Structure formats: structure tokens, C-alpha cells
Nucleoside diphosphate kinase (Deinococcus irradiatisoli), 138 residues
Amino acid sequence: MERTFAMIKPDGVRRNLTPEILARIVRKGYRIVGLKQMVISRETAQAHYAEHKERPFFGELVDFITGGPVVAIALEGENAILGWRGMMGATNPANAAPGSIRADFATTTGENVTHGSDSPESAERELGLFFSEGELLK
Ligand code: IDP
């Protein structure tokens, strides 16, 4: 059993994709162990995307991710980290596998609907950044 951090980004929430994406997660068989809609502070956004802070798109990314409500999701399941990354598809929707969320619902790399942790270390870090222990099911 593995836990990962998933997020429906502001573009996904604004476009009313929340029910579609939650339905895919639940139908896949993952257990939702934490769920909340929230607006991310700039501090949290900068910490979440710290690995990109030298990249030219960092400012734009922080503006985007704090620009409207997101849905923060803690998922649990077998191989949930890679499994959720697979369901999302590649970062650039043009390269995303057919049937993946980014292939089905996004056209640009900047606004690509969802986030998912890319390793056990980032999953632990990101779950800790977005959820307190009491907000997660045992
Ligand atoms: P990931 O979300 O698939 O893990 P990362 O490379 O970690 O992809 O990038 C994090 C996020 O930063 C992307 O999902 C996207 O929103 C944004 N991003 C990445 N590359 C670019 C870019 O070249 N232009 C604008 N935004 C980008």
C-alpha cells in the first residue's frame, strides 16, 4: 500500500472537472484518505514547487496555482504513486497517453489540470505540506 498526493489544479476546478477526476480515482480503486478544496498560499506554492524555483516559468506557475481553489487529495492504493502519474499522463498534454486526464482535458503544459507526486519522498513531503495528520484517515 502506498500513499500519494494528488491535486486538481485551479484550471480543473474552474472547468468543473472535479467530479470527473474524482470519479476516475474512485473507479480505479484508490481510496481517498484526505480531501479538501482550498486556496493555496504563495508560501505553500513556493515550497511545493521549490525544485522549479530557478526555472523561467516559476513566477507564472505560482500565480497560476494560487489563482483559484484547488482540490487537494490524499490517495491510497497499490503502486498509487506511479499509478496516479499514469492516469494523469505526461506533463505536456501533447505527449500524454490517449485516455489519460491530460490527454483528455488539457492542451497546454502550464495548465494541465492535475498534479501528482513523482516519488515516495515527494509524496511524503507534499502530503505533509497540504494535510495535517488529523485530516488523513488511518
Ligand atoms: P509534473 O506536473 O508532470 O510533475 P513538472 O515538470 O514537475 O511536471 O512541472 C510541474 C508543473 O510546472 C507542471 O505540471 C506545469 O504546470 C508547470 N510547468 C512545467 N514545465 C512548464 C513549462 O515549460 N511552461 C509552463 N509551465 C510549466
